[in-house]
Amino acid sequence: MSKGELGKNNTFFSAPAGEGVAGTWKQLYRELIAGPYARHEHRWQQMVGSGAEVVPVARGERINGTVAGMRHIAQTEGPKTLWRGLTPTLVASGPSTVIYFVGYDYLRQWMGRQMKQRERWAPYEKYSSLAAGCIARTSAVTAISPLELVRTRMQSSATHDFQTVIGDIKREIHAGGLRILWRGLVPTLWRDVPFSAVYWFGYERWRDAVYQPLFGSWGSDGSGRIAVAFCSGASSGVVAAALTTPFDVAKTRRQIQNFSHSQSAPAQQKLPQIVRHIIATDGVKGLFAGLAPRLMKVVPSCAIMISSYELGKMLAVQLSAGSE
Description:
- The protein contains eleven helices and two strands.
- The chain has helices spanning 3-9, 11-33, 35-47, 66-77, 86-116, 128-155, 162-176, 185-215, 223-255, 271-282, 291-322, and strands spanning 55-56, 62-63.
- A two-stranded antiparallel sheet has the order 1-2.
- Helix 3 (35-47) crosses helix 4 (66-77) and helix 6 packs across helix 8.
- The radius of gyration is 21 Å and the shape is globular.
């Protein structure tokens, strides 16, 4: 089999290239454009559990919106604060993207083939995207959890710069061992694994049932395929992000325990305790704190991610075919 044929029928050539393009554009968007939303999201979620419905500021003024919250942070802490945590995020993006995208692509195809070959499992082949997304995301999240811990702590307060965060983590490691580097892993998995399952399963459903009939016939240059991917990714991202926001709130609260000076909740709470505490102090709506900035960050990111991934695979196949 020629290299061109292999590129058309296998992800060996297309997946790494697609992952590289998707990872690059996704990180540029998330850090340079969506970074301020992430900053505001973590600050808002940090307050959950205090009983406050809005962000208190000087002279009795109160903030009750995403844009107002980001403007307040920029005015009181400086515009650069909106991009705090950029360094650990960029460092984590490489291994995370490789593990997640390439892992999903291979697992999805392998599971699909295996299930199609077994008559008993063939009707459930469409669910292989759900399982592949769960496994790939679990591996990626576990690998970069220490860097995610640093990023979240840096974004939780104006005084938490890189050196301060690293110093506190070193002291915690000395006192409690290396396991503190994975503090917040469980709620992060509760957020990211269901997100990936819902996202990839929903993506294929939106693609096949809605957007493929609408845009699939656009042009012969692949523009229709990109449009289908973009719209399907955005639609599925809305649903996945909304459903998993409670786990994102719990993850943020867990990762800043023992680092925040707030006494609103006891330290070292586990996930069920955190959720119960949030509901007791803020009601069920507290579990969706930061939903608006989360959607502003996640939904465009999902659309850019998957459309860039498809574009990268298309370019890789073309290059492989042209090099025959």
